[in-house]
Structures are given as C-alpha cells and as structure tokens.
Hints:
By secondary structure, the protein is of the alpha+beta class. The chain is 32% helix and 22% strand.
Amino acid sequence: MSRRDGGRAAHRLVEDRTAGARVVGDRALVLGASIAGTLAARVLADFYREVIVIDRDHVIDVEDPRRGAPHAAHAHGLHARGCLILQEFFPNLLKDMRRAHQPIGDLGEQRWYFNGRPFTPTRTGLLSLTAPRPVLEGYLRGQVAARANVTYRQGTALQGLLATADGARVTGARLQSTTPGAACFDLEADLLVDASGRGSRTPVWLQQLGYQRPVEQRMPIGLAYTTRLYRSPHARSGPQFVNCLASPASPRGAFFGQAGDDRHILSLTGLLGDHPPTDPDGFTAFAQGLPAAEIHDRIHDATPLTDPVTFRFPASVRRHYERLSRLPERLLVLGDAVCSLNPNYSQGMTVAAMQASALHQYLQRRGTPDSAVFMRQVGRILDKPWYLSTTSDLKFTGATGRRQLTAPVLNAYVTRLHHAATHDPAATDALMRVASLIDHPATLLRPRLVLTALSAPAARLHHDHASAVKAAPAPDQQQPAPSPPLPPPTTGDATDDRPVRKQDTRAH
C-alpha cells in the first residue's frame, strides 16, 4: 500500500470496525479518564448502549495538567503504531491536530542523538505526533464525550467493586462524589474496565473477593523528568524535535520539541538518582552538559515561560494478570493499571491504543469478553514493549534486576547498531520501526543490519560495551522470571507483528 493511500485506508478501517457492530450489553463502566480509559470508552461505545467514564478529577475542557496526571506537564510522543490505531478510531485526528498547529512529522527525519552523534535522518513513512499531553487528551475526550451514549462522571471517586455473592462476576462499582460529605452510591454495569493507572487497587479487591493477586514485576530505574516551556521566535524552524538518547556512556537525556507556534518544550531526564535540578540555573547547567549541544544553543536566546517542574518515575511495573488461573467475569484491566513502562521510550500511549484495538476486535468477533482469555491477550501485547523497555534499562550501571545470559551481548549489538545509524539511514529506519512497535525486535537481526552493525569501528564502542557488561549486578531475588528470549515474528490476530503499512507524512 502506498503512503498516499494511508489516510483513505485508515478511514475504511474505521468504517469496517463500526459497521455491523453488535450490542453486547446495556452498560459498561470505565474507571479512569486518561488515554487508556478514553480509548476504552471509545471502543465500548460501539457495543454497549451506555458507557460511563469515572474520574475523580475534572477532565472535560481541561487545558492544563491535572492532579491525577502530573506527568502530563512533560514531553510526550505518539509514534507510528499508536498514530495508526488512533486514526482508525478518530479519522480526523491528524487533520484536526494540523489545524491546531500541533507538531506532526516523520519519525526518522527528526534529530536523534546517541553519545553525542546524530543519527542519519531518513524518511521512514512513520508518523510522530508530539502535541502536549493535555492537548491530545482533551481532543480525544472531547470526541468521545460527544457520542450520545457516553457520559463522563467527573469528580467521582471509586470506593470498591460490586460482585455477585460468590464473587464469580463483577457487577459494578461503589462510587462517591468528591464533594465533602457526599454519600457512597452503587452503579451497576455489565462490564467494568479498570484504567485507573499505576495506583489501581484491583489487586487488593481481587484478594478480598477470594482471588490471587497478580504477580507484580518491577524494574527500578530511578528516572526523573524536569521540564520547562520557552517562547522562541524560531520555534517552527529546525526539526520537530531533538531527542538526546540516554546511554551507559551518556546517561543524561533530553527531549526538545515544538509545542505550538511560538514555543518549545524541554524535558531533561536523569536516571538512578542523577536527576535534573528544578532551580533555573541548575536546569540550564544540566542542559549545557548534554552531549547534544544544539539543545542548549536553542534555549540560550529563548524566553522561559515557566519554572522547571519535575516528575519522578521510580520503576516500570507490570502486573501479570495473564498468569492468573481464574478471574471474576466482566472485569478487564488496561493501560498503566496493568503495565506502566519507562516513559523514556514513548510506548505508553501506543500500548494503550494496541489494547483498545484488541478489545474492539474481541467484542466484534466474540461478544462479551471472557476476563481470563482477554487478559492473556493483553499479556501478549505487553511482552514486546516490556522486553524492549527492561532490556534497555538493564544496560545502565546501577540498574538492578535479573538479566538473561545473552543480555550483555544483545545490548552490545544494539549499541553497535545505534552507532551504525549515525552514518547509515537503513539502520535509522530499522531502529525507528522497532522502537515505535511497528516491527518485531527480531527484525534487527536481519543479515544486512548485522553486517552493518558489526562493521562499526570497535574503538568507538569500547566504552559503551564495557559499561553494558559492568551493569550486571547480582539478580534481585524478588523479581519474577525474566522475559523469554526474543521469538521470531509471528502472524495472527491484533496482537501479532505483521508488517504495518507506512503512513502519509506529507504536510497538509
């Protein structure tokens, strides 16, 4: 399929998804109104007569980061596969984002730095949308809330689950307005979707109903973002964004990108306790020390619009619901409530979109979801991004966790491939396609790429390789078994790794 046909194909996919959708139930209840919850509501609206989204915050017509989503103040990216899926559910997304002057471009044509050297830019056909998170969330919520059968109940807190006397099926939720003195009330539903984020209490409530809690796997990384907005008369000049990738040799990172007609956003990142300061002078000094000098050069003459604000992300967390032998019926868990990934890799929104797409296909094909069956499908969706995120984190000195015996070799190989991308556009393209969850990681082992990576000068790589090997402390005995070695690409349903069409990245 040509890039030019991409937009029309996405529209046809939407028509295919919604045409002939059958009614599965009367009411679906979604806990949480962020990206995952809003996408779930969009899907459920095609199959349930009524969809109610619950959130303790006020979320409609909100333009600033809200209390329940403090990370929204920092840089976000929706790349490639996430863009494709969202276009299927929101056909006018890109047109409306362009009309609002939000930054959209080709992922491979942006500026990517690794150890101070830029990747060779190349046109990949993979879209990157880097609108501020509140802007994107606000747009999606507005589209979903406009549907006649969807209601957002704002300022409402979740107090517990309702279930049948034997606990075999969830029947709704106990809720309470955040207004002081408000009484609790029960809301029954045919399906309950927990998209309440990292703080989800579903494991506790499962235990209270007589079920096992899911095994929780943690990958400590001690990440912090510190972000500042700037006004610049040249905000639209240069690339859509500059991304300085953290590596064992240069563990400090940054994302500097367009954030409107006359402004830029700069998010500095630091790992394992080396956090970017929040005082203006310290923030600037941290930026000056980055291996990508152009970031500091771009803010030198810009006008700060905000004070630096920080957000800490102590660890990636995955709850293995797919391993439970039984679950109550009519209960699903999506988004960060099941797996919260290191935001450095920009996977969270795309993974939420993949889960929503899988839910739509399940409801279309099978009707009322079997909780255990669908959560196993969610587990398969998560395997690849979890592997990519945790394997990348484990190459840093001081990162703790179980490592496969092959991890140092694989990380050394990917480091060579990163270096190859500084002079070979084919390596850039391959890395972009895997990082944006279009291609399976095993595609990086194609013969031509292996030859390119192994041809990289060994002297340049010595420091990174030594750091990757050094970063292998004793295993954390509390960690579950590590992810299996990379399987070959497969074919099948919505969770597979089939080649995904390239997108139309032309300016409109």
